[in-house]
Amino acid sequence: MDCRSHPRREVGAMTLVELLVALTVVGTLVALLLPAVQAAREAARRLECQHHLRQLALAMQNYHATHGRFCYGVHAGWGHSWSAALLPYVEQTALAERIPWSESGWWMGKDANSRSLQQLVSTQIPLFRCPAQGHPVTSDLNQMTDRYVTNYLACAGSDATHDNLGSGGMDRSNGMFRAALFKRGPQPPTRMQDVTDGTSQTLTLSESIFVVDGDAGCWICDRFYLYHPNADNGDGFDFSEALGSTYYPMNTQGKEEHRECAFSSWHGGGVSGAYADGSTHYFQDTVDGSVWRAVGSMNQQDAAQP
After folding, report:
1. pTM of the complete model
2. Beta carbons within 8 Å of 214's beta carbon, 6+ residues apart
3. Closest listed residue to residue 128, CA positions, set 174, 173, 79, 95
4. pLDDT tens digits for 103-136?
5. Which of 82, 85, 84, 76 is nearest to 103 (CA)?
């Protein structure tokens, strides 16, 4: 065996020009790949959002199977919304059992029931939140701290032009979920047979962004769940914390009063929604206004005209 040593080859270092070329190539590749990575992440967020909506829509069906009717949208003068009614059907029975299901207790009270309601608004259940929302996670509004920010609204209909009571309000709109007047006796809740357009053609839930920022275009686009202090104030108001309307175009950039009632999304280009049969769909914001209104109504002949 020849044990003679061989001279070692010297490996030359990279020149400055070669280093700059390598960095340029890497930078170009990153620039090309970054949009694809961002698009993949957004697609995953949108898919997760639709999964949340499907779970909630199916929970509404289970509620109907148990009670023979759907839950109310918001109980005006009481403060609970559809999200509280669904808790036993989304594996949150223990939380539902802590809710004072009566008119006793209010958002500024010091008694045990009031304390339960105040704690309820800060309970974080990711199922009720779109992953594209980002920050904030909680918000301090209505003298209630750490209120959990959510994004899903039940559909009040296609003819609700504002989020209060009265003409054009969410207590008499033509969708599946309306504001029920507790003090005057709640109007009959929706039953499956009331959805004459068919459950595969009627919107039950969709998403809406949370934003309380004048620079972002809306100081009043706040979205909360389970218990709503404004809805607990007399006959209630500000039902857009829990309900939306297809009267206005999705993702509208119009007046604040329109934006707070409209469905909207952080995804861009449209909104995710769930039909009453539990199926989900991504609605492009280029959809014709009359079609969007028809989707929001339980009966297309009652859909509001432009």
Report:
1. 0.86
2. none
3. 95
4. 678 888 889 888 888 888 899 999 999 999 988 9
5. 76
